[in-house]
Design goal:
Elements: E1 8-9, E2 24-25, E3 33-36, H1 42-64, H2 67-74, H3 78-84, H4 88-109, H5 118-128, H6 143-148, H7 156-182, H8 192-207, H9 216-231
Parallel strand pairs: 1-3
Antiparallel strand pairs: 2-3
Length: about 240
């Protein structure tokens, strides 16, 4: 029976590995050592790359995003990146398809999901933008708006992907507004999709201002007019 003191971590890819995930090591006067296989987590690595890609694309846009920065942020090798994504373009597409809808859900839509009257919840989201409870992801503006600002430099397929996220947000928000219309909390003589589009534009406009230019007075003025608009939606 092998001495447990001789157990050391397995070097991945070792040709002496046996079918149980152990290997022989002939080092040390012919002694046999057994080494354990280091655990692999491909899904975790892919998620790290997506998160890092999201952060870098938010900072620099698709064209300006640096592969070196993404690798450094994710804490992985270049080989690991290209194992999951063949190119920066493929990584960018995955960020748009997976990270941006999740951002829309978590930041803007989830809080409305179980509200019959969505207007107070919509107002609360804006009120929080001027407090410590504001989502950290909005510190440097709306990630979707930041990405869309480089639309002129995108190929047609990428632009369509970004537009699909906007449509996803508009469709979700319009659905919540329609529910409140059905419950008689919002006027029924307005189009829910048009209201959703206008609200998205208002939020983008405010969040496009650098944080240093979004002081308490600016936020108070914005929140006041936003409240006035929401009140105009009442029956």
């Amino acid at each position: 029976m092998s001495d447990i003191r001789h157990l050391t971590p397995l070097v991945l890819g070792d040709e002496n590995e046996n079918e149980d995930g152990w290997r022989r090591d002939g080092k040390g006067n012919g002694e046999r050592r057994l080494q354990l296989r280091a655990p692999r987590d491909p899904n975790g690595t892919r998620q790290k790359l997506l998160d890092a890609g999201f952060a870098e694309i938010r900072r620099a846009g698709v064209e300006g995003a640096s592969i070196a920065n993404i690798i450094e942020i994710a804490g992985v090798t270049k080989g690991a990146l290209y194992h999951h994504f063949r190119s920066k373009s493929q990584l960018a597409n995955a960020v748009i398809d997976e990270c941006l809808p999740a951002y829309v859900d978590e930041t803007w839509l989830d809080a409305l999901a179980f509200e019959e009257d969505v207007l107070p919840a919509l107002m609360k989201q804006v009120d929080q933008l001027g407090t410590a409870q504001a989502p950290k992801i909005l510190d440097h503006g709306c990630p979707l708006a930041r990405l869309a600002s480089g639309a002129d430099d995108m190929d047609d397929a990428t632009r369509k992907r970004v537009d699909s996220v906007y449509r996803y947000w508009r469709r979700g928000l319009a659905g919540h507004i329609s529910r409140s219309q059905f419950a008689k909390y919002i006027r029924t003589d307005i189009q829910a999709s048009s209201v959703a589009e206008f609200i998205m534009a208002i939020l983008h406009g405010y969040l496009s201002r650098p944080p240093v230019l979004r002081g308490s007075e600016v936020h108070a003025a914005f929140a006041g007019e936003y409240a006035r608009y929401l009140s105009s939606l009442r029956p």
